[in-house]
Amino acid sequence: xxxxxxxxxxxxxxxxxxxxxxxxxTALKGAxxxxxxxxxxxVIASGIGQAAKTPHYVRTNVFNGLHGRAVPAATAxxxxxxxxxxxxxxGDGDMYGEGGNHFIHAIRRNPDITVIVHNNxxxxxxxxxxxxxxxxxxxxxxxxxxxxxxxFNAIAVSVALNASFVARAFAGDHDQTxxxxxxxxxxxxxxxxxxxxxxxxxxxxxxxxxFKENTAYHEASYDPSDRFAAFKRATEAEKMLLGIFYVNxxxxxxxDTLPPYYKETTPLFKRRIDGEKLFGLIDSRxxx
Amino acid sequence: xxxxxxxxxxxxxxxxxxxxxxxxxTALKGAxxxxxxxxxxxVIASGIGQAAKTPHYVRTNVFNGLHGRAVPAATAxxxxxxxxxxxxxxGDGDMYGEGGNHFIHAIRRNPDITVIVHNNxxxxxxxxxxxxxxxxxxxxxxxxxxxxxxxFNAIAVSVALNASFVARAFAGDHDQTxxxxxxxxxxxxxxxxxxxxxxxxxxxxxxxxxFKENTAYHEASYDPSDRFAAFKRATEAEKMLLGIFYVNxxxxxxxDTLPPYYKETTPLFKRRIDGEKLFGLIDSRxxx
Amino acid sequence: MSHSSVEKKDDVSVVLCGEAGQGIQxxxxxxxxxxxxxxxxxxxTKEYMSRVRGGSNSTQIRVSSRRVSSxxxxxxxxxxxxxxxxxxxxxxIHEDTxxxxxxxxxxxxxxxxxFNCIDIHYSDIASDxxxxxxxxxxxxxVIAGLFSVDRRQFDDMIETFxxxxxxxxxxxxxxxxxxxxxAARTLVDAGRIGVDVTAHPDVAGEILMNGADAVGIGAIAxxxxxxxxxxxxxxxxxxxxxxxxxxxxxxxxxxxxxxxxAMNMTLGAWYAGARAMVxxxxxxxxxxxxxxxxxxxxxxxxxxxxxxxxGPATGLPTRTEQGDLQLALYxxxxxxxxxxxxxxxxxxxxxxxxxxxxxxxxxxxxVFILTDQYLMxxxxxxxxxxxxDTGAIHCFIETDESYKxxxxxxxxxxxxxxPGFGTGLVSVDSDEHDEEGHITEDLDLRVAMADKRLAKMTxxxxxxxxxxxxxxxxxxxxxxxxxxxYHVIKEALTMMNRDDVSFLHFKxxxxxxxxxxxxxxxARSVVVIEGNATGQFANLIKLRTxxxxxxRILKYNGLQYTVEExxxxxxxxxx
Amino acid sequence: MSHSSVEKKDDVSVVLCGEAGQGIQxxxxxxxxxxxxxxxxxxxTKEYMSRVRGGSNSTQIRVSSRRVSSxxxxxxxxxxxxxxxxxxxxxxIHEDTxxxxxxxxxxxxxxxxxFNCIDIHYSDIASDxxxxxxxxxxxxxVIAGLFSVDRRQFDDMIETFxxxxxxxxxxxxxxxxxxxxxAARTLVDAGRIGVDVTAHPDVAGEILMNGADAVGIGAIAxxxxxxxxxxxxxxxxxxxxxxxxxxxxxxxxxxxxxxxxAMNMTLGAWYAGARAMVxxxxxxxxxxxxxxxxxxxxxxxxxxxxxxxxGPATGLPTRTEQGDLQLALYxxxxxxxxxxxxxxxxxxxxxxxxxxxxxxxxxxxxVFILTDQYLMxxxxxxxxxxxxDTGAIHCFIETDESYKxxxxxxxxxxxxxxPGFGTGLVSVDSDEHDEEGHITEDLDLRVAMADKRLAKMTxxxxxxxxxxxxxxxxxxxxxxxxxxxYHVIKEALTMMNRDDVSFLHFKxxxxxxxxxxxxxxxARSVVVIEGNATGQFANLIKLRTxxxxxxRILKYNGLQYTVEExxxxxxxxxx
Lengths: 288, 288, 575, 575
Ligand SMILES: Cc1ncc(C[n+]2csc(CCOP(=O)(O)OP(=O)(O)O)c2C)c(N)n1
Ligand SMILES: Cc1ncc(C[n+]2csc(CCOP(=O)(O)OP(=O)(O)O)c2C)c(N)n1
Ligand code: SF4
Ligand code: SF4
Ligand SMILES: [Mg+2]
Ligand SMILES: [Mg+2]
Prior knowledge:
The complex is a heterotetramer, with 2 copies of chain A (288 residues) and 2 copies of chain C (575 residues). In chain A, 32% of the residues lie in helices and 16% in strands. By secondary structure, chain A is of the alpha/beta class. The radius of gyration of chain A is 20 Å and the shape is globular. In chain A, 64% of the residues are buried. With 575 residues, chain C is α/β, with parallel strands linked by helices. Chain C has 4 domains: 11-205, Pyruvate-ferredoxin Oxidoreductase, domain 3; 208-382, 3-Layer(aba) Sandwich (Rossmann fold); 396-462, no CATH class; 468-574, Rossmann fold (3-Layer(aba) Sandwich), CATH 3.40.50. In chain C, 39% of the residues lie in helices and 21% in strands. In chain C, helix 9 packs across helix 10 (236-244) and helix 9 (211-221) packs parallel to helix 15 (346-363). Bound molecules: thiamine diphosphate (2 copies), iron/sulfur cluster (2 copies) and magnesium ion (2 copies).
C-alpha cells in the first residue's frame, strides 16, 4: 500500500489484533488525507486509554495529555492558533466519564474542534470495567452483578445542549465512518463523532456482529437540522442509529469571540507585546 | 410566627436583604414540615456559594462540603443510611459548573435524593461572574463583552438523561415552590428541582420582575410522563416553564442495587463485621 | 472622654468599618486615589467577610508624609458605619483614637463616655441629599476635608468614579461628598481635629495600584496572552484585571467550567504557542495538581498565580495566609522541578510575574507566583514599577523535519517547537516517552528522561533570585521572611532601630538561592516570621540547608501581621 | 553451549516471558497455587507493559525450600514464549540459566549456541491438542512436572481454574498440561535437568495471596463497608477484590464517574456512619487532593489506599515506584494532620489496612496506605495473616440534643456523631466553623480550631508504629527502608552476612515514631534505600529528625529492587 501523508512507517501498535480501533485509525487517516489537511497543520489531542493512543499512530502533531482532559487542551490549542485543524480523541470513559464536565461545557463553548469518541462501552486499558456507556447488565470484575445505570446517551445530551454537529459512526464501516469524519472536520464549530468500536478483549457483548445487528443508518431523506427529530432518534429508535443526527450551523464559534482575533488572525505565537500600550497602562495608574 | 421544627432561632443570615434565597429557604422548611420529615432524620448536603449556605439556616444535619461536590456526598450519605432523607443543595455554578460531571452521572445512578439548584444565573458569592446559566449578552467584570455561550439547559439535559424527576420552580412563588419540593422529596429516585432565584446584588437582568414576565406554569393537563413533550417544553417554549417537566418512576434506585441492602435495611453504622466469614475468606486462600 | 482633637500626626491611620454593602469599598477607592493625587503617601488594606451584605468589614488607609506600605494596629481616626464596628475593631481603639461617627447611631444609650468622639450626622446629611445610600460618600468627604484635599479635585474624582451613573446620582454624590467635606473643614477650623501630613508634589504622579493589578501588569509585560481560570477569592482579581485589558492587549480570557479545565487549557495553550497562566487559590489549585504533574511530564512552561487564603478546604475564603507553600512545592504526582516566587511588594509582584513567564519558557517548568489575599487587596503608591522594557523572552524554535521534542540534553532543556511553526512535528506525551514524544516502555530511557527533567535544577538554582538583605551585613540576629510580609517586617525593623538585627527577605522561595545557608550561618539567632501554623518556610530551609532556625513566629488567624505585632513578637524572642 | 542440566538448587528462579495475551498470567496463577499446595515455598512477581496484547512481559516465580518473598535478578529456568523474550530479559541470562523453549521459534537461524537450552515443541504439542492458545498450559505442565507436582493435584487445579469454560476446553487444557508435565518428567528422568527443592507439608496449607488481596482483607477486617473509586492501575485490584466480596460482607462498591466524586462520596459515607475508603494511584489521587483538604477541615476519618506507580502524569502506568510519599504527605491545601502507613509485607498490608480504619476513626484524620504496583502484584505464602480477631473499633457516639460536632478539646479529638443516631444534629463544614459546625468569621475561634486540629499530632505520634530493626542492636551501618522494599533488603542483608550492618524498616512513615532519631544516631553510617529519584524518605527524616543520612540508594526505572541489586549497590557505599 502506498504510504499516505499520515502513515507512520514501521511502528509497534499496542492494540489487540482485531480491535475496532484499527478501523477508526484507517478511516481517520483516510478522511484527513482526502480533506487535504497537512500533518504539520493538524494537532490531535487525546487523553488516556486505548483509544487515546490513536494520535501516536498518526504522523502529525500530538498532545497526549491526561485521562479525560483532551477537550480543554484541544479547545485551548485551537484558541492559541486558529489556523490549526484540531481533533480531540479518546474513549467513552475518557470523554464521558472522567471528562464529562468538559464534554458538556465544550458543547456550550463551541470551539471549532472535532471530538472523536471511540465508544467500546468499556474501560479497556484498565482491563474491563464498566464505562458510562456500558449496557445494563454488563458484568465486569467491578460490576459483578452487572451494570444497573442507564447508559450515557451522548447523542441525546449533545442535542439537548444544542451542539453544533452531532454524529455517530461504526468502526466496522470504513467508508461511511471516513465520510462522517470528513464532514465533522469540515464543519465549523464543535463536532461530535461517536464511533461504535468493538473491543475484542473486554467486551464480549457488543461485538462486531452485535453492532451490525443493532445499528442502522438514518435514511437519506433525514433532515439533521430538526432538533426534535434528532432527539427522538437519539432516544427512541429501536436500533442505535448511525450518521449525522443534528447540525446547527448558526452558533458562534468560540475563537470568533476571543479578543485577539477581533481584528487579525495571526496566531498567538507570532505576536509580541506592545510596549507602548503597556507603559500607557502603567501610567494610567498615575492618574486619577 | 410560631417556630417550626426546622427554624434555627436567632441567627445571622449572610444573604442580602431581598435575595431570592429567603423565599427558597421558607418554601423548603415549609415543605419539610408539611411532609413530616424529622430534623434528625434529614441531611442537607451542600457545596459552596450563596445558595450552598442554605443548610446552615435549617435546623437539621448538615454536610457543607466543597464547591461542586454536594451530589456525590449526598449520594454516599443516602447509600450509607437509606433511612435518612437526603437533599443536596447549591447554586447554578456549584451544580452545573464545577459539579457538572456529578450532575450528569448522578442522574444515571439515580440515588433517592433531591437536588435543589438555586439558579440565579450568576456566580454570586464570588461577586458576579457569569455562570453556566447566564444569558447570552450578560456582562460581568470577567465577561466584559457579555456571555457568548448558550446557557446550560439543565431541564433538557436531565430529560435527555432520562432522569427520574425533573422540575423547575420560581423562588418568588412560595406556594408552588413548596409544593414542587414536597413532590420531589416524596419521589423515590433522583429528583431535580431547579429554582429560579433573583440575585438582587449581581444579576440586574434576571430580576423578580423579569422572572415574572418570562416564566409560566405548565397547564394542568400537561402529562409529565411524556419524555418527548418534556424535551420540547424544555427547549422550545417561549417562556421558561415552571412545574414538573418529567417523571419516570421506573428507574431502579441506586440504594436498591447495593449489596448491603439485598436482604436487610439496617444502616451501615449499625453493622459489625462477621469475624467468621472473614476468617473463612482468609482460609480460602489456604486452599487451591 | 471629651478631648476630641487629635495629636498633629504626620502618619495617620484611618479605619473605616461597617457592613458589607455599606459602600466602604467606594470610600477606599475614592480616597486612596484622591489622597495620593493630593501628594500624600497612602497605603490601603482591607479585611472582609465572605458575604455580600451585612457582617463587619474594615479598611485601613494610612496617610503619611513618608512612604507607608504596611498595616498598623493603631487607629488614629475611626469611621464606624454602625455599632457593630466598635466591637469589630474594638481591641484596636485606644485613648487617642478619634471616632468620627454618628453618635445617635453608635451610642443610642449615650454610653460614649469611654471614647474620644466627634459627632457627624451622616444619616441626616445623606437623607437630606437623597437617602441612606449617600452615607458613604459623606464619610468620604469628611476624610477628604480633614486632609485638605483640593475641593475641585475631589469633585472631579467623584464625577469620574460614578461615570456611567445618571447625572442626578453623580450630582447627589457630589453634594454628599461636599457636605462631608465642609463638616470636616469646620471641625478642623474649630481646632477640634487636625493632621500634619506633608504632601509631596511628586507623589501625586506616582503609580497607585494593588497586588492584583501588579500581578496583572507583570503578566502582560511577560507576554501573557492567555488566561484560563475559575473564579475563586482572592485570585479572581487578576482574572478581572486581565479581562479588563483583554481587548487592548489581545488576551484570551476564559472562565472555564472548573479548575481542571482551566489548567489543562493553559497547557494546551502553551503547547500551541501562547504564553498562558492560571490564577487560582487553595482548593481550586488542589484540583489542578494532576495537571501540574502533566506540565512536569510534558515539560510544558506554565505560570500559576496562587493567591493564598486560609485552609484547609473552604476555610476563610476572604482572608489571608501563607499556608500553601508546601502545597505548591509538592504539588503534582511524581518528581519534577519547579520554581516558586513570592512577591513582597508591588514592584516584586510586577517584576516576578514578568519573570515567571520568561523562566517558565526558558526552563519549561511550572512557575508559581505565590501571593495572598493581603497582597491582592493592598494599595499604595510607588514611583515606578521597575521594568523599563517588556523583555518577554520567547524561547521556542522553528522546527525542521528532524525535530524531536525531547532530545536528551546535558542541562535538561530541549528546544521547544510549536505545532504549525516549521516543518517538524511536535509530539508531547503524558506517558514516559522517547525523544520524539511517543510512549515508551524502555526503562533505561525512563531513567534518562527522569534525569533530564531533574537536571534542570542545576541551572534553575544558578538562576535563582537572591534574597534581599535589609539592614547591616554584620547582624547577630537575622529575621527571615518571605512573600507579602516584606514591608511590615521592614517597617518593624525600622521601628526597632537595632543595628544588630537584619532582615533577609525571600522573593524566590524555591529553588533557594545557593547563598542562603551562608546568610543563616552568620547569625547568632535566626527568627523566621511567616503566616501559617507550622512554619512551612522554616521547614524548607531546614530541608534544603540543614539549618534549624531558632525561632518561628507564626500567625494564622486570617489577618496579615501589623507592624506593632511584629515588633512585639520579635521582642519576645530576641533579647 | 550444550550442558543443559541444572545445578541441583533448593531455591529456583523460574522466569516466564512473552507477550501480553499469551497467557503468562494463567501460568503464574496456576503454578503459584499448585506449587504452594505441593509444599514448596513460592514467590511470584510480575512486570508488564501498559497494553493488552503484544509487547514483552515477564513473571518470576521463585520455588524454594525456605521462605522467599523477594525478586532476584538471577534466572535459573527461563521459559520464553517468543524471541523478543530473550532480548527483554537478556541481561539476566547467565551461563547457568536453562532455557526451556521452542528452538525453532527462538532461534530460527540456529543461533542458540550461546545459551543453555532445552528444546520443547510447545506449539506442536499445543496444536496437537487444539491450537496455539494451549501453549501456556503446556508450559505450566512443564514446570509442574519439573517440580514433581502431584499429577492429580495438577489436573484438579486446571479443572478449578477453568471452571466456567466448556468441558472440552477444560479437557484440552488438562491434556496440554499433561503433555507438558510428561515432557518435563522425561527430561528429569534423563538427568537433563533437576531441582532440589524440599517440600514442607505445612506450607501446603499456608495462605497464598498478593498485596491487593492483603489490603482488601485488612480493609474488611477494619470494618470497611464502603469503597468508591475510579479504575486506575495498579490500585484497581483492591476495588476488584472488594467487589468480589461485596455480597458476602455487605459492602457498597461504587465505581464513580471520576476520582473527585469517589473521594467526596467516601467523606459523605463516613459522615453517615460507613467505614469507607478509596483506592487510587498517582494522577487519580492528585484529583482527590481538594477533598483530602476537606477531610482535614471536616475532621472526617478516611482511608486512602494509594498504590504508587511512576510519574509524573501518566508515567509508566503498570510499573512500580515509591514516588508519592511527598504527594501524600503534603496533599490537600491548608494544614492538618494525617497518618501514612507503608506495608512492607503481606502481613503488614493486612495489619496496616485494618489499623488504618481504626486510626482514621480514632483520630478523625485521613490515613494513607501507601503501597505500589510491586506489592499489589506479588504473591507468596505466609503461615497466617497475623490478625486474630477483627477488632474494628468504632468511635462514634450516640448524640443527644446538646451535641456539638467540634467541641474544643485538649487532644484535638471531639466525639463524632452520626446523623440519625441519637437526638442530636450533626453539622460538618468545610468553612472554618464554630463548635456546632456552622460557618464562622470569628478569627480567634479560627485559631482555636486550627490548634485543635493540629493538636492531634501529639497523640498520633505516641500511637505511631515503631520501625522494625532487623539485625543486631549494635550496628555500625544502618540501612533504612520503608514500604515494599522490606523483604528484598532483608534477604540482601542475609546474603551479605555482616553483623555490623542492620536494617531499620518503617511501616509507618508519618508521623515518624519518636525513637527514629535514636536509631539513626547510633549508626556510624546510615544508608537509605528507596524507590524514587530524589530520596523522599531521606528528606522526611532530615526534616523531622534533623538527621542527614550519609547515602541514598535510589531507583526509579519502574522496577522493584532485586536482592542482587541491593547487595551490589550497598557494597558500593559501605566498606
Ligand atoms: C486520572 C486518571 N484516572 C484513571 C486513569 C486510569 N485509566 C486509564 S485509561 C482508563 C479508562 C479507559 O477507558 P476508555 O476511556 O473508555 O478508553 P478505552 O481504553 O476503552 O479505549 C482509565 C480509567 C488515569 N490514567 N488517570
Ligand atoms: C474549588 C473551588 N473553586 C472555586 C471556588 C470559589 N467559589 C465559591 S462560590 C462560587 C460560585 C458560586 O456560584 P453559585 O454556585 O451559582 O452560587 P451562588 O453564590 O450564585 O448562590 C465559586 C466559584 C471554591 N470555593 N472552590
Ligand atoms: S483491549 Fe479492547 S480496545 Fe484495547 S486494543 Fe484490545 S480490543 Fe482494542
Ligand atoms: S449576592 Fe445575590 S445570591 Fe447572594 S445573597 Fe445577595 S442577592 Fe442573594
Ligand atoms: Mg472505552
Ligand atoms: Mg448562582
